[in-house]
Write a structure and sequence with these properties.
Layout: H1 5-18, H2 23-36, H3 42-50, H4 57-74, H5 93-109, H6 112-129, H7 137-150, H8 154-168, H9 170-173, H10 178-212, H11 217-239, H12 244-248, H13 250-262, H14 266-269, H15 275-296, H16 298-319, H17 326-340, H18 351-366, H19 370-378, H20 380-387, H21 396-432, H22 438-451, E1 453-454, E2 461-462, H23 468-480, H24 489-501, H25 508-520, H26 527-540, E3 544-545, E4 549-550, H27 554-557, H28 561-571, H29 581-593, H30 598-615, H31 622-642, H32 647-663, H33 670-683, H34 690-699, H35 711-724, H36 726-729, H37 734-746, H38 752-765, H39 768-788, H40 792-821, H41 825-838, H42 844-860, H43 867-882, H44 885-888, H45 898-901, H46 928-942, H47 946-954, H48 957-969
Antiparallel strand pairs: 1-2, 3-4
Helix pairs in contact: 1-2, 1-4, 3-4, 4-6, 5-6, 6-8, 7-8, 7-10, 8-11, 10-11, 11-15, 13-15, 13-16, 15-16, 15-17, 16-17, 17-21, 18-21, 19-20, 21-22, 22-24, 23-24, 24-26, 26-29, 28-29, 29-31, 30-31, 30-32, 31-33, 32-33, 33-35, 35-38, 37-38, 37-39, 38-40, 39-40, 40-41, 40-42, 41-43, 42-43, ...
GO molecular function: nuclear export signal receptor activity; small GTPase binding
Domain Importin N-terminal: 29-109
Main location: cytoplasm
């Protein structure tokens, strides 16, 4: 695309139309730009439009956004996520160099709004090219910083610093590698000194402006923001390890850091708007920097420590009282927490200091504020994410408790004593006036829950602050037994959370007496309350006694099961809870435990299909949808296995929904739909009803198999049909279609295992007379993969397949069919692949199958295989049967074929409750060890003297001893 007046006019008009409120011109403009973006130099042309002063600012801003997104997609494009989707054309190297030569100077000339977009675009380039492939960038940015600071243009200074901050962020988040350290050294060499010089110059500018009284809020705000960005860059450059330059100049940094924590800037802080937030942003950045040095360079930092602790402490006492200063409060408390767990913990030893921490820092930060109540009411998902799911580590409430936990590492008795007293005080204040002081009770509950410690590897929690049963009875039970489920909802939520957390410690009779009350709370109007009630029930049903025995059973919940299910489905109809994942998870859990009568099954399948029909047009919440399908799967499994007459009723309810998913191409639900269909097919008795045969036809179409995420579910469904409808399979060329699917799957390392599943099911369920015309083609496909792309996984699957073939259709058919493809290939395959890979087999069914087949091979192949191969085979069988898996498996994991796996993002999601029962093709063999020695003893009796020499020459000493032990165990001998 050439830059000329016509290009300028075309792009200007397109970007203008993308801003149109009318959909049609907007769509046409977007399509035209998408087409133009495939042409060379498109990005360069858009950048030149952005720089064109004659074009309207709004159009240039839209172009800047498009330019940034163009670079994101094409600077280093990823392969498409799905097959048959064309790749994006990457930007040519020549165009890249031109863009890199222009972008910095253009960025600095433009308005702040456009500048921020180009800064992001520059960071996109930097992510891939900086610093080694763009060595001129940092010197150019440094030169601009020098001239801009001399001109006192801090708007542009901050633009450049924001760009450098984005470029350097990778040093915080990437693992330490040699490559990263090389990049870091390059940045330190070129920017550590200029950063300090700029920081000190801005220190002087601020001091002069404040000292002379000439500083206005707007100008001072730019200076303070510049220092904040310098602090963030400092954090990035010091994150991996302390560089020598920063160690040499530590005093210069630390003196100013302390000043920013102690000095006030009334002109800015009292100016209203966001003045205080800007200063607090700088203070928070300083707290993060000193926290980093405290963690990484404690010894060097020690001389500054007490001064910083005092400064942070004083700042916290003031900031904790203000709800608008959360970021500063959190970073400051984090710093004190780091100190409390270090060797300098004695700074917190004194009783008066602990008292002040509790009263001036912890309680003010744990106490609910207006914004907490607003979040509770307006965004229940975010509230629960923070409150119950532990993502609140950066909130005032949680971090204040983390400080107490840190101090308790060394002063547990003192902390317990102080906090227990605070809890009693809070509860006493609540008792004086429950209506007005309910937040004090919430504070007490939160302290107990947040300071409880979880036992490693389990769900049991403990606390020294209270006696759990007494606290539960006096503080929690009154809330749970309250008749009004909508009164004081935040207290109700806290009570339910306490019940959930301490569920293991509460006696069963105490919990059972309150379960009907928890069921009542499912009807609460508050989304948080009915979510917490559902979560409480769901977690109670997971409690186990003595490690494995469920504490709560179907008998326990049967008296109120109908009310429970009714309330759960009603909760899904409440505003904003239509896709409430906690409710749906509870439904799944209850259905997995309860005794499901016909009435319950009927009501539940109706309720679940109604929900499914509602979410199908626009699947939004993947977690909710997963639990929805798990609920359907567990209902099918438990109801239909118990009462097969329900199958047709379930089909009647579910089929329209499943057909809608397939007909409307709801691709997110395809894997789920196929797994549910598999379940239903497997539950039917032959002959399979006609409506399933139509699905079978869809299943055989090549288009159905193009999306990788569908493959495991389609294979599962195909296996179900092969088992239940083998005769229909052998009609109208369907077997040929099935083997075509196998052929496609087997050719790729990412799907070959699924191909073997299909093939094994065919071999297991069809007679040899049916499959014999196709066996030659099967061997050709397998030998091709063996020759051109074998992996350990493939070879193990090949051994399993050959074993199944042998036990189902006999050694003769196996040998003849293989040698028909290539002369004497059977001997080669057994010697080079079967024997060495047999010892790597895992899984009880697979182990039995392969060991029995290999035993048959030894006993039936004396004319086919020489004694050495048969001896090595026996050695592998004994290894397989006598040694634990961890001793046998020493192979390196397969390296994936990058051509097959790059860009594969869509994933198959397995439905636990729709899992198929593992088929055992050798039900008649109970013990493969006994089968081995009995078969060999029997064969040896007809050919005495053959085996002792074979064993002596080919079996390892340990395996000879193991085989002797097996013979002794079963009172048999191999002569």
């Amino acid at each position: 695309m050439e830059w000329n007046p016509e290009t300028l006019q075309f792009l200007s008009q397109c970007f203008l139309n993308t801003l149109s409120p009318l959909p049609e011109p907007r769509r046409r403009a977007e399509a035209a730009l998408a087409e133009a973006s495939e042409r060379s130099n498109y990005g360069l042309a858009v950048l030149q439009l952005v720089a064109e002063p004659s074009v309207d600012e709004q159009i240039r801003h839209a172009a800047a956004v498009n330019f940034k997104n163009h670079l994101k997609a094409r600077w280093a494009p990823s392969p498409p996520k799905e097959p048959n989707v064309p790749s994006l054309t990457p930007i040519s190297n020549a165009e890249k160099e031109l863009i890199k030569s222009l972008i910095v100077s253009l960025m600095l000339k433009l308005s702040p709004k456009i500048q921020s977009q180009l800064s992001e675009a520059l960071a996109v380039i930097g992510k891939h090219d900086f610093p080694l492939q763009w060595p001129t960038l940092l010197p150019e940015l440094v030169a601009n910083l020098v001239s801009l600071t001399q001109a006192n243009d801090y708007v542009s200074v901050n633009g450049v610093l924001a760009t450098i901050n984005s470029l350097f962020k990778k040093f915080r988040y990437q693992f330490k590698t040699n490559e990263l350290l090389v990049d870091l050294k390059e940045c330190l060499d070129k920017f550590a000194k200029p950063l300090l010089e700029l920081f000190k110059r801005t220190v002087n500018v601020i001091d002069q402006a404040v000292g002379s009284g000439a500083a206005d809020a707007a100008t001072l705000k730019l200076y303070v923001e510049s220092q904040r960005l310098c602090c963030r860059i400092f954090y990035s450059l010091n994150f991996q390890e302390l560089p020598e330059f920063f160690e040499d100049h530590m005093d210069e940094w630390m003196i100013e850091f302390k000043k920013y924590l102690t000095v006030k800037y009334p002109v800015l802080e009292d100016s209203g708007n966001d003045g205080l937030a800007v200063v607090d942003g700088l203070r928070a950045a300083v707290c993060e920097n000193i926290g980093l040095y405290m963690e990484k360079e404690e010894e060097l930092f020690q001389k500054y420590l007490s001064g910083f602790v005092e400064a942070v402490w004083s700042l916290l006492v003031v900031s904790s009282a203000s709800s608008s200063r959360e970021r500063l409060t959190v970073t400051a408390i984090k710093f004190l927490t780091t100190v409390s767990t270090s060797v300098h913990h004695a700074l917190f030893e004194r009783d008066d200091i602990l008292e002040q921490i509790c009263q001036s820092i912890v309680i003010p930060n744990v106490m609910l504020r207006d914004e907490d109540e607003e979040l509770f009411e307006m965004n229940y998902i975010e509230f629960i994410r923070k409150d119950m799911e532990g993502s609140d580590l950066d909130t005032r409430r949680r971090i204040a408790c983390e400080l107490l936990k840190g101090i308790a590492m060394h002063y547990k008795v003192k902390v317990t004593e102080k906090v227990s007293l605070q809890i009693k005080n809070c509860l006493a204040l609540f008792a004086q006036n429950p209506e007005a002081n309910w937040k004090y009770k919430d504070c007490a509950i939160y302290l107990v829950v947040s300071l409880a410690t979880k036992k490693a590897g389990g769900s049991t929690v403990s606390t020294d602050l209270i006696d759990v049963e007494n606290f539960f009875g006096s503080v929690i039970v009154p809330e749970l037994q309250s008749r009004d489920v909508n009164a004081f909802p935040m207290l109700k939520a806290g009570a339910l959370k306490f019940f959930t957390m301490f569920r293991n410690q509460l006696p069963k009779d105490v919990a059972m007496a309150l379960l009907p009350d928890v069921v009542r709370f499912l009807a609460a109007e508050s989304n948080v309350v009915h979510s917490y009630a559902a979560s409480c029930i769901e977690k109670l049903l997971l409690v186990k006694d003595e490690g494995t025995r469920p504490r709560y059973t179907a008998t326990d919940i049967s008296p109120f099961l109908l009310v429970l299910m009714s309330n759960l489905f009603s909760a899904l109809e409440k505003p904003e809870s239509e896709e409430n994942q906690y409710i749906m998870k509870c439904i799944m859990r209850v259905l997995g435990v309860a005794e499901i009568s016909r009435d319950v099954a009927s009501a539940c399948i109706t309720g679940l299909t109604n929900v499914l029909n509602r979410v199908c047009p626009n699947p939004k919440n993947p977690i909710f949808n997963h639990y929805l399908f798990e609920s359907v799967a567990v209902l099918i499994r438990r109801a239909c296995e118990g009462d097969p007459t329900l199958i047709s009723a379930f089909e009647g309810s579910l089929f329209p929904s499943l057909q809608m998913i397939l007909a409307n191409d709801v691709s997110e639900f395809f894997p789920y739909a196929f797994q549910l269909l598999s379940q239903l097919v497997e539950l039917n008795r032959p002959p399979v009803p006609q409506h399933y045969v139509q699905i079978f036809e869809i299943l055989l179409l090549p288009e159905s198999w193009k999306k990788s995420a569908n493959v495991p579910a389609l294979v599962r469904l195909l296996q179900a049909f092969l088992r239940k409808a083998p005769h229909e399979l052998n009609q109208q060329g369907r077997l040929s279609n099935v083997l075509g699917i196998f052929n496609t799957l087997i050719s790729s390392p990412s799907t070959d295992e699924q191909g073997f599943y299909v093939l094994n099911t065919v071999i297991e369920n069809l007679g040899y007379d049916v499959i014999s015309p196709f066996v030659g083609h099967i061997w050709v496909s397998l030998f091709n993969r063996l020759q051109h792309g074998r992996t350990v996984k493939f070879m193990k699957n090949l051994v399993i397949f050959m074993s199944l073939f042998l036990v189902k259709h006999g050694l003769q058919n196996l040998v003849v069919s293989m040698n028909a493809v290539q002369k004497d290939v059977f001997h080669t395959i057994v010697e080079q692949f079967w024997v060495p890979n047999l010892k790597l087999i895992t899984g009880s069914v697979e182990l039995k199958l392969t060991s029995v087949a290999s035993t048959k091979l030894i006993c039936e192949s004396s004319t086919l295989l020489d004694s050495k191969v048969r001896g090595k085979m026996l050695d592998s069988i004994v290894t397989l049967l006598s040694r634990p898996e961890e001793e046998r498996l020493s192979e390196e994991p397969d390296v994936p074929d990058f051509g097959e796996t790059v860009g594969y993002n869509a994933t198959f999601v397995h439905l636990y409750n729709a899992g198929k029962k593992e088929e055992d093709p050798l039900k008649e063999v109970n013990d493969p060890k006994q089968y081995l020695v009995a078969s060999m003893a029997n064969h040896a009796s007809s050919s005495p003297g053959m085996y002792p020499q074979l064993i002596r020459e080919n079996l390892e000493a340990a395996n000879q001893a193991a085989l002797l032990q097996l013979c002794s165990s079963y009172n048999l001998s191999i002569v």
